[in-house]
Amino acid sequence: MGFKIDDSKLKRAGLDYWPYLDVKEHADWVALRNALDCHDRWYAFSTKSKVHLWQAEFQIGDVLVFGPETRGLPRSILEQMKTLKIPLRSDAPVRSLNLSSAASIATYEALRQIA
Questions:
Q1: Angle at 42 between CA 57 and CA 13, to 5 degrees
Q2: pLDDT tens digits, residue range 50-76?
Q3: Count of structural domains within the chain
Q4: Per DSSP, which regions of the chain are E strands?
Q5: In this structure, is residue 99 part of a structural domain?
Q6: pTM for the model
Q7: Is residue 32 a part of any domain in this protein?
Q8: Domain annotation covers residue 22
Q9: DSSP letter at 95?
Q10: Cα separation of 12 and 56, whole Å?
Q11: The domain that contains 65 carries what CATH number?
Q12: Nearest Cα residue to 45 out of 111, 101, 2, 1
């Protein structure tokens, strides 16, 4: 993951939410894929996708996958699922959003559609 779940800063950032989370760690990508029984409803986020987040039709049980800010998800993972991108203004001086902003935007849109 790139960080420790027991890190004090992480716990402090999510102080009010920890009691409502069921955090699980998996040995690797294959173990995670096998553990979640929704293999056709996975969405990977990539700046290279042609499909905008707003075009997706989310359902309960969908899985949203984000990669590292520095390089994104590996091609081998992107090829396993549908890809989406969060569109930026064409004159935006950046090529992508930071990971926490992207995850927040995508999660909120999925929850908005499902609610």
A1: 95
A2: 999 999 999 998 999 999 888 889 999
A3: 1
A4: 42-45, 63-65, 82-84
A5: yes
A6: 0.82
A7: no
A8: no
A9: S
A10: 33
A11: 3.40.1280.10
A12: 101
